[in-house]
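Structure representation:
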Amino acid sequence: MKTITEIILTTIDYFNKGGPVMFLLFLCSVWMWTLIIRKFLFKSILSPDDNTSTICTLSEIAPLLGLLGTITGMITAFEIISRNGSAGGKDLADAISEALITTQTGLAIALPGVLIGYVSAAKSKKITRKSRERHE
């Protein structure tokens, strides 16, 4: 079993391997999870509120940021190939790893936000529809 220190060091290493876009993904994740936790603690996860659209938007932005990291990682890979004339082993692998790590992270951040955001949005529509039916 890994110690807390090993987990933290592994996470920092993973973050560093993902390149500069990981910082944006981290901010997106923290913002989204802050809204989700706030929604869960102070309201119902299914209750409609102003944060539902923000959660949905952040969950849509995360994969795009992951794609941005993919592009920057692949640009780095092509720069290595053009500089060395051929694939430069470890450097090339690191650049491709950066591309894949950001893609994976963007998708992993998006999934819970998509689920929670759209379930909450559906609940909101249902409540709005029932309210209209009662007033008609």
